[in-house]
Amino acid sequence: MRVCVFCVLVVGLKLGVCRGYTLADNCPIQLSHDSLLVEYGNAVKVNCSLTTTLNEPYMLGWEAVIHPVEPVQETSTVWSVSSLTEWEINTRDIFCYLTVIGGTQCKKPLKLNLYKRADSVVIVRDNGDWSEGEQRKLKCEIKNVGPVSNLTVRWTRLDQNQTRTIRESRNFTISSRMEEKGNVTDTLEVWTSPEEDGVQYQCAALLDLIQFKQQQVDESQPFNITVLYKPIITGPSAATVSKTAGDALTFYCSARGKPKPQFTWTTGNSNITHSPLLNISNVQSEHQGNYTCIASNSKGSASVTVTVNVSDSSWWIIIVCVVVAVVLLLIAGLFVYFKPFQRRGGPV
Q: For the chain, give me the number of helices (H) and strands (E)?
């Protein structure tokens, strides 16, 4: 009689007539893992076992579209895959069930997610030199990652002052519904300016699945940005400088730019020197005037002008002589004034 009941149970399960399973807290079965996160191509093994002894005929089995397991009248049963590669597993129910003849039908679900980290994450820029004032593109190319629907692409900008996230992109899709992994490209537009020269950009592929305690991150190497731009003068500031004849006059012109700037100092229509340093050791009145530093490269030029006023040192000599003469006259006057008094006060 027990054999007949067992046969009826098996036939019923095969025909699908015993599919009214209930998700009951008191279902007397347990799983070795309630939730699993499996990396693409890895093995997976989950044991389902009874938590109590049953006197009635029963069947213990796994309901799984991927790698199904035949029901058994044993105290445990194992669902296993040697190399899990079917992305369909992420959207299908997997559960261990218990059917007792004429009694309980219950199940315990297994939450399973298949994922694959990216084979590579690389930043590619568009062709040609990047010059100031252009809208250019960086592409983050992510190879063979999944599930794509759980992917976030994060762009980060790194300079000498700070590191900051500038954008996160989500909601990626691929053409095949049955294949959750694939290649993803995300494009970032960059406005080229002198401030972007020397900056680094980095992109990261982040997989966010509920079983992860933290997001799985695959990052690109930092990508260095080079921007060509015309010179920007950083010194000296435009000013008026007063000098006395005989003094030394020194100006140093500095500028940043790419390519590296070349310098020329001019006054009037004449070039004085093709150097950032202007030095006149002995300034004279003919050196008075405007001096212009021109910094130039293949992208343009910039300039700054300083005005030099020169006062003649002979005026100082005249002033000193006048002061000395006045002092001598005062001394002579005092001598003449006090001389008669000295004579009157002498012996009679």
A: 2, 26
Which residues are paired to 187 by β-bridges? 139
Question: Does 336 map to a domain?
Answer: no
**How far apart are alpha carbons 120 and 132 in whole angstroms?**
31
Token output for 78: 């194992």
| Residue 95 belongs to domain spanning | 2-115
Same domain for 157 and 205, yes or no, is yes
Last residue of a domain, one of 224, 249, 275: 224
- Summarised one tens digit per residue, pLDDT across range 248-261 is 999 999 999 999 99
Q: Residue 177: helix, strand or coil by DSSP?
A: coil
Residue type, 244: T
Same domain, 91 and 181: no
161 in a structural domain: yes
Please give the pLDDT value at position 2. 37
191 pLDDT above the threshold of 50: yes
Q: What is the pTM of this model?
A: 0.75
For residue 97, the domain's CATH number is 2.60.40.10
Last residue of a domain, one of 179, 201, 224: 224
Does a structural domain hold residue 145? yes
Tell me: pLDDT of 22 over 70: no
Q: How many domains does the chain have?
A: 3
With H, G, I as helix, E, B as strand and everything else as coil, classify residue 45.
strand
Q: Which residue reads 């199940």 in tokens?
A: 107
Let me know: does 60 contact 36? Beta carbons within 8 Å.
Answer: no
End-to-end Cα spacing for the chain: 175
H/E element, 314: helix 314-344
Q: What is the mean pLDDT of residues 271-299?
A: 96
**Model confidence pLDDT, tens digit, residues 298-326:** 999 999 999 999 998 655 566 667 788 78
DSSP state at residue 82: S
Arithmetic mean of pLDDT over the chain: 87
